[in-house]
Amino acid sequence: MEETDREAVATAVQRVAGMLQRPDQLDKVEQYRRREARKKASVEARLKAAIQSQLDGVRTGLSQLHNALNDVKDIQQSLIDVNKDWRQSINTIENLKDVKDAVVQHSQLAAAVENLKNIFSVPEIVRETQDLIERGELLQAHRKLMDLECSRDNLMYEQYRMDSKNTHDMNLIHTYFGDMQKLSEELAKQLWMVVQRSLVTVRRDPTLLVSVVRIIEREEKIDRRMLDRKKQTGFIPPGRPKKWKEKMFNILERTVSTRIEGTQADTRESDKMWLVRHLEIIRKYVLDDLLVAKTLLDQCFPPQYDIFNKLLNMYHQALSTRMQELAAEDLEANEIVSLLTWVLNTYKSTEMMGNSELSPEVDVNSLNPLISQSVVDQLLSKYMSTLTSNIIGWLRKALETDKKDWIKETEPEADQDGYYQTTLPAIVFQMFEQNLQVAAQINEDLKTKVLLLCLQQMNSFLTRYKDEAQLYKEEHLKNRQYPQCYVQYMIAVINNCQTFKESIISLKRKYLKIEMEDTLSSSHTSMDATLDIIAKEGCSSLLDEVFMDLEPHLNELMTKKWLMGSNAVGTICVTVEDYFNDFARIKKPYKKTMTIEAHRRVVVEYIRAIMLKRISFKNAEERKEGAERMIKEAEQFRFLFKKLAAGSGEDTEGLCDIIEAIAEVIKLTDPSLLYLEVSTLVSKYPDIRDDHIAALLTVRGDASRDMKQTIIETLDQGPSQPNPNYVPIFKEITVPTLTVPKLLK
Fold first, then answer.
1. Which family is it part of (predicted)?
2. Does residue 337 have a pLDDT over 90?
């Protein structure tokens, strides 16, 4: 208490100190005292009231406990009295067994009397019910059937209560009501027929469908009541529970499956498009059925049946089963594509489950896949394998067809720009386009795989194409009169190479993602290289054709006949120009290459004719005449190839300059300057060899053997500063050594 008093005094001092911090507050001391006195009186009053309330509660509790104790004692005494009376009345209860049996018998007789009318009228009610079923009045028929079943069930229940082991009486009742079971089965058949045709019935006579649903709902209630009674008594009438609701859904499920399976009207043997037709019919039927189910059927069933979602699940499951069956068949490549396109795209598109009229009840994102990913992968693998075989076969057939065109006696077709071409590139890339468009319908990944496959097979195909073009050339060389249009078709083959290049680029640009281009760069480079080889070999074979015709005229060069005024070069120019009228139908990249190559080969053959030493000029006059003729013919070549290369940007000057440079060496009149002139020639054309110089000096006819050797040895010792832009030409020219002694360095 002292500690409490001290804490109270300290608190009071602190409180007073807080009130009297300023001198002017001393005037309010009396006011503060009265306020604190009021607070103290209020606290004391509340404390007294609380204590009084607690005391009253304790007093009341003690009183109730005392009363409860008295009540427990009274109850205990009453139980003792009841127990005593029960023991005394056991014998009396046993004496009332006869009364109990009489009550049960009375109950049974009362039930029999109550159903007596129905019992005697069973045959008549059966006939009436049968008539109602036949007339389609199903609700009334079911009402009478329920009355019959109720009478039978009540009789059997009373018999069960009286003597559950008396099977004879039970069988007697069951036999008497035997026709009733047949009625139930007949009614069920009518119900299931309506259920099977529910999507048709709901449009024509929705009332009939509602009646069927009401009958099923009645039977469900009776089933539940009978099951509840079985739990209590152990008795359940024969044929219960009927489970007609469950049977209804089973029949609906079988109906849906049959409807899906029954849409296949054709087979592969009768129609190549059988699967497309089959899938389209399924799509139309399913969409129509679900729209009817949503707008009409849903209104004929109680909400708890959730009929639309159940039908949706049935259709989905039936479709899944059907798609798996189709996937397991030996499908062709186009059929695999049709199936996968339908399963992966069409099914969830706006044309079917994604139709706006089905939303929001149908959420395509919540639908499970119709076939598993493993089955999809198997189909895709099979498709790629089949497609590979097909593409190889198609390419082979296309090439064989193209080869047949090569031997025709009519010229190949020309494109809008007048360039010869065959149908091969168009056929090949049309085939590629079709397969890529089909693959794109399934997914991007398959499209990329098909593109890679097409380009891969294209690579192999181009190798075969190159081999066939080479065989075409070799066959022609055996008989140059056959095929008649060899030149024109070889031009078409060359042009096809450019078309192939452009088509490959177009195909990649259209179907390949930018990030995938690097993966195909090596393949693309390889195809370009093969195409360039085919074109180059084609151009070479055409030039071979030209130079085979030029050979007699080339053999006249640098001969006595040539020196005396042969028109060999004029004939050469006319022949080349005539061939190049056909070569004008070669596309630009290869036309330019061919013009350059023809120019180079003409110059090479001309220089080769010089190096063959067919002529050795006897005097300065002949050398001058020969040199001037060479310069004149070089100018003819220059004019010709400048004309052929018009607009191509080709430099036609350099090659003919070689002929003129050689002519200057031959034309030189002062032998003392011969070394200087030859050294100038060698500095311009560093690939010129000793045997070339020796042959050139032999053609001049005035250089001794010692002079030749001196000039060659001196040139070998001199520095060589080749022009980096010079393309070697003398290395292709071989000097015959049989008639000329070999010069030793």
1. Belongs to the SEC6 family.
2. no
